[in-house]
Amino acid sequence: MSLRQSILGIAAVVALSVTTTAALAQTKPAIKDLGGAAPASVIFIGNSFFYYNNSMHGHVTRFVSEGMKGHKYRNTSVTISGSGLDWHNVEAYFAPNGIGKYSFVGDNEVVMNPPGQKLFEVAVMMDCSQCPVNPTLSKAFTEYTKKHSATVRKHGAQPVFFMSWAYQDKPEMTEQLAEAYTKAGNANKALVIPAGLAFANSIKAKPDLNLYVADKRHPSLAGTYLATAVTYSTLFGKPANGMKYDAGLGAETAAHLQKVADDTVKSYLGR
């Protein structure tokens, strides 16, 4: 072996070592699940990333209905277009006789939330799409994940953070958002839903399946379905794989997204 070959070989080993070290340096989530029984009530607090495609929480309901037959479940979505967490008055969302006071079932039958029962057991919160990694707004992300987590716990519920996805034309945001949300989750002892990582994994495995609408930020129906599958698998500890509900995407597309969701949750949370 020539001197030049030896030098190139050493350089390759060093480069591989650096790459591996960088991958291992990604913060790992400390909280793996909610603990205890599956939640019976969830509030989703966020923005248009949640409410696109007739709102993600409605799709979550369909997953729970099929995958956990007999489990009583209700959820509510509170969203503000373009909002960050600092726009939301989470204290008000837990006010007695406020949001979640009643719900509709069957043929528009009104069911009142029994007095003394928790309004919500889990609060899933998402910041604006770039707030956690924006130089100007990242401090507010740290401040309000802490503040809202304390508020949620004061009302006997568990905070959960929803890791959003990168813009279609800015894939580098994936790792940045994952790191920001994971650190926030660990700092506030909160579970994190790794939707952003699932987007990246789906794109890698099936790049022809578009998870975005024309603005390259908001989710297509496939994107919302994937986010739903990740949310279901994370919150309820149940596999999304095998769900018959496909939101009209077709069985093949749904099966791909279900598998990506389960694999991502398993890898991220170490389940």
Secondary-structure element string: HEHHEHEEEHEHEHHH
Global structural class? alpha/beta
**Mean pLDDT figure:** 90
Rg value? 20 Å
**Which CATH top level class fits?**
Alpha Beta
Helix tally? 9
Strand adjacency order, main sheet:
2-1-5-6-7
Helix content: 40-55%
Note down, in words, how this protein is organized:
One of its GO terms (molecular function) is hydrolase activity, acting on ester bonds. With 271 residues, this protein is α/β, with parallel strands linked by helices. The chain has one domain: SGNH hydrolase (Rossmann fold, 3-Layer(aba) Sandwich). It is 44% helix and 12% strand. The protein is built from nine helices and seven strands, in the order H-E-H-H-E-H-E-E-E-H-E-H-E-H-H-H. It has helices spanning 3-24, 48-51, 56-67, 90-93, 138-154, 173-187, 195-205, 221-236, 251-269; strands spanning 41-46, 74-79, 102-105, 109-112, 122-125, 158-162, 191-193. It has a five-stranded parallel beta sheet, with helices on both faces. The protein has a two-stranded antiparallel ribbon with strand order 3-4. Strand 6 (158-162), helix 6 and strand 7 (191-193) form a beta-alpha-beta unit. Helix 7 (195-205) crosses helix 9 (251-269). The protein is globular, with a radius of gyration of 20 Å.
